[in-house]
Write a structure and sequence with these properties.
Shape of chain A: globular
Strand order of the largest sheet of chain A: 2-1-5-3-4
Structural class of chain A: alpha+beta
CATH architecture of the largest domain in chain A: Roll
Largest sheet of chain B: 5 strands, antiparallel
Number of helices of chain B: 13
CATH class of the largest domain in chain A: Alpha Beta
Number of strands of chain B: 14
Order of helices and strands of chain A: EEHEEEHHHHH
CATH topology of the largest domain in chain A: Ubiquitin-like (UB roll)
Radius of gyration of chain B: 19 Å
Number of helices of chain A: 6
Helix content of chain B: 25-40%
CATH class of the largest domain in chain B: Alpha Beta
Bound molecules: FE2/S2 (inorganic) cluster
Mean pLDDT of chain B: 94
CATH topology of the largest domain in chain B: Uridine Diphospho-n-acetylenolpyruvylglucosamine Reductase, domain 3
Largest sheet of chain A: 5 strands, mixed
Number of domains of chain B: 3
Number of domains of chain A: 2
Distance between the termini of chain B: 45 Å
Shape of chain B: globular
Structural class of chain B: alpha+beta
Largest interface: A-B, 32 and 34 residues
Mean pLDDT of chain A: 96
Low-confidence stretches of chain A: none
Radius of gyration of chain A: 16 Å
Order of helices and strands of chain B: EHEHEEEHHHHHHEEHEEEEEEEHHHH
Strand content of chain B: 15-25%
Oligomer: heterodimer
Strand content of chain A: 15-25%
């Protein structure tokens, strides 16, 4: 076992891990961070997405030990001071049904608008293309992101 | 799912340290960069190893060097880093486009070009671009450095000429004035695997280069097609004629993703579309 220390949602946390332990499992089982979900377990669905040093990664494909000394943000961190605009719009528009894909969608959206605050529909689709949703047919999710990020026009 | 195979984890900061580890462990070590292939293989028990060497701590391997006539991409360079470089978009448009078509953002943020050619699956997106660019791979072991042409790199599905004690330092790509595209057939956007892919390179002096992935055991240049078109003025009629050569250049298989007939059919269409697009870019300047 090796002790690793990482900054999760702004808080320094230390945990003992074996080299073969997967970040997703360590987050959920050892650190109690439950928003990342295990869908496919092989990088295809995006349900396990977290921000690692500001970039979205699939936590099912990262060894926990690789993240020693690094920064991780999950939906718990994004919602620390209440829901943000994108999340509220998703809520208003009933963007999700079962909600299993929601954390991954929110992570991908957060990364997108960090770089590009007013994306067009094409750019939103591109950014979310690695997040699978088995319930909604995607439309309400795409609409929510579009709505929440559209440019405000001031007279 | 947990990884059942126990291993030791190393994160060297220096190339020499890595070469030392590789020479000790030989076959019994795996290099970890983005991990998007390696971790899946470890989970699914397709790969077993006692030692994993993470090279992300070696700053030297993370660099993109652009000189007057050459571009060096270190083995830590991710697809996202390529996409975010305006200079690479301008100088290596085919590789840039291929990078954008690799799986999804979350994968591209981790996956590296060098990792892509090292895992050497027949469908690897970066291969057609590297083949038409005549890229060279720089590798090093304790015994020294050597350079391997991309044309000699792939020796079979998931197999390369790289020796167990060798580390890939990066890829050299000569800079040439050209236009081109990478056309990919996938089931949906965001999917990792190409069912067919073609890289197309054209230039002012009527050089035409083509390379495929996913429609043969290893990605390859399409020499018959190139010879047929070399030096000729592209016309619709000529493209029609050239299309007929394609079936003799490729050897697609039928699998869960698509049939060989469909792949062949789509290769013809992608060739036609891609060549027309490339010619338009060449004539109109870059958009
Ligand atoms: S669980 Fe990680 S991508 Fe599906
Ligand atoms: S709401 Fe159920 S998977 Fe997206």
């Amino acid at each position: 076992m090796k002790k690793i220390t990482l900054k999760i949602n702004g808080e320094l946390r230390s945990v003992y891990v074996e080299p073969e332990e997967i970040l997703l499992d360590v987050l959920r089982e050892k650190l109690g961070v439950k928003s990342p979900k295990c869908g496919c377990d092989r990088g295809d669905c995006g349900a396990c997405a977290v921000l690692l040093n500001g970039r979205s990664v699939r936590s099912c494909l990262v060894l926990a030990i690789e993240t020693d000394g690094q920064k991780i943000v999950t939906v718990e961190g994004i919602s620390k001071d209440g829901l943000n605009k994108v999340q509220n719009t998703m809520l208003d528009k009933n963007a999700f049904q079962c909600g299993f894909c929601a954390p991954g969608m929110i992570i991908s959206t957060t990364e997108l608008i960090e770089k590009n605050p007013h994306p067009n529909l094409e750019e939103i689709k591109e950014a979310l293309s690695g997040n699978l949703c088995r319930c909604t047919g995607y439309l309400p999710i795409l609409e929510s992101v579009q709505e929440a990020t559209k440019e405000e026009h001031h007279e | 799912m947990a990884i059942l195979n126990d291993f030791k984890y190393y994160k060297p900061k220096e190339i020499n340290e890595t070469l030392q580890l590789l020479s000790e462990f030989k076959e019994n070590a795996k290099i970890l960069a983005g991990g998007t292939d390696l971790i899946v293989h470890l989970k699914e028990n397709l790969v077993k190893t006692e030692n994993v060497i993470d090279i992300k701590g070696i700053t030297e391997l993370n660099k993109i060097d652009i000189s007057k006539d050459n571009i060096f991409l270190g083995s830590g360079v991710t697809f996202t880093e390529i996409i975010e470089s305006p200079e690479l978009k301008d100088k290596l448009p085919i590789l840039w486009e291929a990078s954008k078509k690799v799986a999804s953002v979350g994968i591209r943020n981790r996956a590296t070009v060098v990792g892509n050619i090292c895992s050497a699956v027949p469908s690897l997106d970066s291969a057609p671009a590297l083949l038409v660019y005549d890229a060279e791979i720089v590798v090093q072991s304790k015994n020294g450095k050597r350079t391997i042409s991309i044309h000699d790199w792939f020796t079979g599905p998931k197999q390369t000429i790289l020796k167990p004690e060798e580390l890939v330092l990066g890829i050299n790509i000569p800079i040439t004035i050209h236009a081109g595209v990478y056309e990919k057939l996938g089931r949906y956007r965001g999917e990792d695997l190409a069912q067919a892919g073609i890289g197309i390179f054209v230039d002012e002096i009527k050089n035409y280069r083509f390379a495929y992935c996913a429609v043969g055991p290893v990605p390859k240049r399409m020499k018959k097609l190139e010879d047929f078109l070399q030096g000729k003025e592209i016309s619709d009629k000529l493209i029609e004629e050239a299309t007929e050569i394609i079936p003799s250049e490729i050897s697609p298989i039928t699998d869960i993703r698509s049939s060989k007939e469909y792949r062949t059919h789509m290769m013809k269409i992608m060739f036609k579309r891609g060549l027309q697009k490339s010619m338009a870019i060449l004539k109109g300047g870059r958009s």
